[in-house]
Design goal:
CATH topology: Rossmann fold
Order of helices and strands: EHEHEHEHEHEEHEHEH
Radius of gyration: 17 Å
CATH architecture: 3-Layer(aba) Sandwich
CATH superfamily: NAD(P)-binding Rossmann-like Domain
Number of helices: 8
Bound molecules: NADP nicotinamide-adenine-dinucleotide phosphate
C-alpha cells in the first residue's frame, strides 16, 4: 500500500546521479536494493546505509537481467513493491552522427535491458501489486544532437504505455520524464551543456519529484522546471 512504509524498492543505476539521490531519500523509510555496472567495493562508500547492491552491467542486457534477478533472490526478497528502471547513458555523436556501436550501446543499456528487466521482474511485482517505473527523459519527443538517446527514451515511453495496458490491475506501470539535471551523465556522454548547465535542476530536487510521482502512480509525468516551480519537489504524495 502506498505510504505504508518499509516498501521493498529496487533502483537500477543507483550508484550515482538521480538513482542515488532517490535511494538516499527513500532509504529513510524503506528497504532499498540498488544495481549498477561498477563493483560493490567501488561504490560502497556512496550508498545509503543498509542498502543492498547488485552488479548488473546493462551493456549486456541478457546477462545483466539474470544477474539482477539472482541478486534480488540472494538478497532474500521474493517480491518487490517498486522497481525503478533508472540506469541510463548517453553518447554524444561526433560530427552529428552516432556510430553504429554508440547507437547499439545506447539502445542496449537504456531500452533493451529495461524491456528484459520489466519482463523478468513482473512476477515479483505482481506478488505485491507493485509499481514499475521507467525513467525516460523530456527528450523522448525528439531532440537535436542526441538522436539515439532520444530514440531510446521514446522506446521507454511506448513500453510504458504497452505494459500499463497489458498489466492493468496486476502491476502499475509509469514512465517519468525528467528535464535536465545536474548529474555527471553529460560529462560521461562527452556532451558539454556549456552555459545551459547552471539552469539544470539539482539532482535532489528531481529525485524528490520522482518520489512523489512514483507515489502517485501517474503516467506519463514530466519532471522539469514547470513542475518544480509548482512546488513539485516539496508538495504532493510521499512514498
Ligand atoms: N541528468 C539528466 O539531465 C537527465 C535528464 C533526463 C533523464 N535522465 C535519465 O535519468 C537516469 C539517470 O541519469 P543520471 O543523470 O542520474 O545519470 P548518471 O549520474 O550518469 O547515473 C546513471 C546511473 O546509471 C548507471 N549506469 C550507466 N551505465 C550502466 C550500465 N551499463 N549498466 C548498469 N548501470 C549503468 C551509472 O553507473 P556509473 O555510476 O558507474 O556511471 C549510474 O548509476 C537515466 O536514465 C537518464 O537518461 C537524466
Amino acid at each position: 500500500m502506498i505510504g505504508a512504509g518499509s516498501r521493498r524498492i529496487l533502483i537500477t543505476g543507483g550508484s550515482a546521479g538521480l538513482g542515488l539521490a532517490l535511494a538516499k531519500k527513500l532509504a529513510r523509510h524503506h528497504k532499498i536494493l540498488l544495481s549498477g555496472r561498477r563493483s560493490e567495493a567501488e561504490v560502497a562508500d556512496a550508498l545509503p546505509r543498509g542498502a543492498g547492491y547488485i552488479v548488473a552491467d546493462q551493456t549486456d542486457p541478457e546477462i545483466s537481467t539474470l544477474a539482477l534477478v539472482r541478486g534480488i533472490r540472494d538478497f532474500g526478497w521474493d517480491s518487490l513493491d517498486n522497481a525503478v528502471l533508472n540506469a541510463g547513458i548517453g553518447v554524444a555523436p561526433g560530427g552529428g552522427f552516432d556510430s553504429t556501436e554508440a547507437i547499439r550501446q545506447t539502445l542496449d543499456v537504456n531500452l533493451l535491458a529495461a524491456i528484459l528487466q520489466a519482463q523478468a521482474l513482473f512476477p515479483l511485482l505482481e506478488k505485491s501489486r507493485g509499481t514499475l517505473t521507467l525513467i525516460g527523459s523530456v527528450v523522448h519527443s525528439g531532440s537535436a544532437t542526441i538522436p539515439a538517446y532520444a530514440a531510446s527514451k521514446a522506446g521507454l515511453h511506448g513500453l510504458a504505455r504497452a505494459l500499463r495496458a497489458e498489466w492493468s490491475g496486476r502491476v502499475a506501470v509509469q514512465v517519468l520524464h525528467p528535464g535536465p539535471a545536474k548529474t555527471d551523465i553529460h560529462d560521461k556522454a562527452g556532451f558539454d551543456p556549456g552555459r545551459m548547465r547552471p539552469l539544470f535542476l539539482e539532482a535532489n530536487d528531481v529525485a524528490a519529484m520522482m518520489a512523489s510521482a512514483i507515489a502517485s502512480r501517474r503516467s506519463p509525468a514530466t519532471l522539469s522546471w514547470a513542475r518544480y516551480l509548482g512546488g513539485g519537489a516539496y508538495l504532493g504524495r510521499r512514498l
